[in-house]
Amino acid sequence: MAKTERLQKFYNSLSWQKARDYKIASAGYLCEVCGGVGEIVHHKIPLTEANMHNPKISIANENLQLVCRSCHKRIHDELDGKGRRIYFDKDGNIEPY
Ligand SMILES: [Zn+2]
Ligand SMILES: [Zn+2]
Prior knowledge:
Largest sheet: 2 strands, antiparallel
Number of strands: 2
Order of helices and strands: HHEHEH
Strand content: 5-15%
Bound molecules: zinc ion
């Protein structure tokens, strides 16, 4: 299995769906950066194969941030400037991680 497939499996898992739903509800459906419509649950410490099985990173509310698409893009543009990897889904959108 490719790296992206393993991470994708995590995103399909029930524990992630639950953590995501909880984060969205606890943030009041709003982007935590700009107050716009929250669309993406972002991992503050980016999820990798090395930490995806650590619930403190992968599903802990403290490591999650509800953001809108433009803030998410901006966050990743900044992270990518420091050499982080990004992923794109089949529609060309940046994958939440
Ligand atoms: Zn925003
Ligand atoms: Zn992100």
